[in-house]
Predict the 3D structure of the following.
Amino acid sequence: MEDHGVSSTKMPAGNKGSFRDTSLSGQERDVSSSEVLEAIENVIQDVLKSLAQNKAPVLTVANRSDWRNIEFKDSVGLQMIPHCTTKQIRSDCPRSAQRFALILKILSMIYKMVQSNTYATKRDIYYSDTQLFGSQSVVDNIINDISCMLKIPRRSLHILSTTKGFVAGNLSYTEEDGTKVQCTYSATAVTVPSNVQGIKNLISHAKFMLIVEKDATFQRLLDDDFCKRVCPCIMITGRGIPDLNTRLLVRKLWDTFQIPIFSLMDADPHGIEIMCVYKYGSVSMSFEAHHLTVPSIKWLGLLPSDLQRLNIPKDALIPFTKQDQNKLASIQKRPYIACQPTWKKELEIMAASKLKAEIQVLTTLSSDYLSRVYLPNKLQFGGWL
């Protein structure tokens, strides 16, 4: 659903506080139920006050997707500026009245869940009335707007994310309900927990963590026993664009163990974009940057320069599409590329060649080249950026 008929304004002084649950370490603290209820009640009271004055109620939310509201900090990544521009969701405007109503509807659902100490996924909320919401993306965007507006993380709103990521390797922990999870001796991957903040007793002897873009590559490395072959490590994949829980887990593992984190992505603009989400965050979730980003992540591969260095056959590479060119051009303009000269050079190599490659291209050299040669050499000789 489009936000038509919205006006941009500066965030009022009363809304300029930082995200209320972020500590200096980036770890979340639990926002109490009473705080959540009070925040929702304040919104509803403002609506009632407007009605009592015969004025059309208006909800003010941050322009989360506007780059003008984003600042880049080396230590945090992309974060929302304190005095960001906002948009008004008006109840008397035909183009935004429905969104106004949907925000109040979801606020009502959240209020009831917090009161009764029950939880729901975004998917649950959508399927509670598919005709009303229209699509899952409408629900997703409204929930993020509410989280940003109230300055309360999604978990404290009793909304759970559906997890699609996997973790494997030298790691064990206890889930919130007391379930002990042992990745170290498991031959298969473990699903990333749905409540990352609730896990405790994390134990690992891993020397590094490897973020893998795709599930197929992750499973291949698992089959090749990579987590034990070189040295103990933790592997994690978001299976493409990472969900919130996968990003939270990467951050929690970094905060807990402070070990090097490397990323293994396809040598294409989409893979680079995904790596940047893990490292620097995304524009739409910049209001939660302090506990989602890990700026210390290193780019291990697949580097555009690796394709030349390893003499990968040209016919094994994939020509750029117009979409690829636009995506790469967009990434090259990002504020964090300016402070990453080695990354900038790699992007220039890719732009000049107009060619991309998936990690599987290494099988043209040998079937197990990735786990037997490429990764061990990179890790031993410092082949990361």
Q: What stands out?
A: The mean pLDDT is 85. The longest strand covers residues 85-90.
